[in-house]
Amino acid sequence: MLKEFRAFIAKGNVMDMAVGIIIGAAFTAIVKSMVSDLLNPVLGLFTGGLDFTNNYFILSGGGPYDNLDAAREAGAAVFAYGAFLSAVINFLIVAFVVFMLVRYLNKAKSIVMAEEEAAPAEAKPAGPTQLDVLLEIRDVLKSDPRPRAD
Question: Transmembrane stretches, by residue range (predicted)?
Answer without folding.
Answer: 12-31, 78-102
